[in-house]
């Protein structure tokens, strides 16, 4: 059952609110086990700020992984579990890093729809939907914001199935 989330208290970060000289880690606690991700505030400061703020507000607690493509990605962070939900905002693209195995990145709308209408020419990222790559995905490089890298629990990532629950996202700064 999708989580009913009100987005009235959520706002997109306008400036980075993470310290560049600190290392940030997120532990994504799931029904299958924990996934530890190093976040990259130097390369994607607004993205990391947004992810940290959503985690601290417990936005992800109880959401599910709604999109699983074997050999490609696992995706979660949508309060409607449909692939079209979010916090009510998007964030600017910060496209610098490559999609290695275990990359943590933002989902987003395509630049154009199937009818050729312009949707997202700035490649703005989803406000909350993220994915983790199961294998290197060079076809995504240059098109999506990578803001972290899995450093523990890739075995858990590979076990994730549609409907598995994100119990909590805990942030650590060192």
Describe the structure.
The structure is a single chain. The protein is mainly beta and 174 residues long. The protein has a single domain, classed as Cyclophilin, CATH 2.40.100.10. It has helices at 45-56, 154-159, and strands spanning 24-30, 33-39, 65-69, 73-76, 90-91, 103-106, 125-126, 130-133, 146-152, 166-173. It has an eight-stranded antiparallel β-sheet with strand order 3-4-8-6-9-2-1-10. A hairpin with a 3-residue loop joins strand 3 (65-69) and strand 4 (73-76).
Name some characteristics of this structure.
174 residues, mainly beta, Cyclophilin, eight-stranded antiparallel β-sheet, two-stranded antiparallel sheet, 2 helices, 29% strand, disordered N terminus
SSE topology sketch:
Layout: E1 24-30, E2 33-39, H1 45-56, E3 65-69, E4 73-76, E5 90-91, E6 103-106, E7 125-126, E8 130-133, E9 146-152, H2 154-159, E10 166-173
Antiparallel strand pairs: 1-2, 1-10, 2-9, 3-4, 4-8, 5-7, 6-8, 6-9
Quick one: how many beta strands?
10
CATH C-level name: Mainly Beta
| Rg over CA atoms | 15 Å
Query: What is the percentage of strand-forming residues?
Result: 25-35%
Total domains? 1
Q: What are the secondary-structure elements, in order, as H or E?
A: EEHEEEEEEEHE
What's the main sheet like? Answer: 8 strands, antiparallel
CATH topology: Cyclophilin
> Which strands sit side by side, in order, in the main sheet?
3-4-8-6-9-2-1-10
Distance linking N and C termini: 36 Å
**Which whole number gives the mean pLDDT?**
92
Annotated CATH architecture = Beta Barrel
Rough outline: globular
Number of helices: 2
What is the CATH superfamily label? Cyclophilin-like
Query: Which residue ranges are poorly predicted, with pLDDT under 50 across at least 5 consecutive positions?
Result: 1-7
Query: Structural class, from secondary structure content?
Result: mainly beta
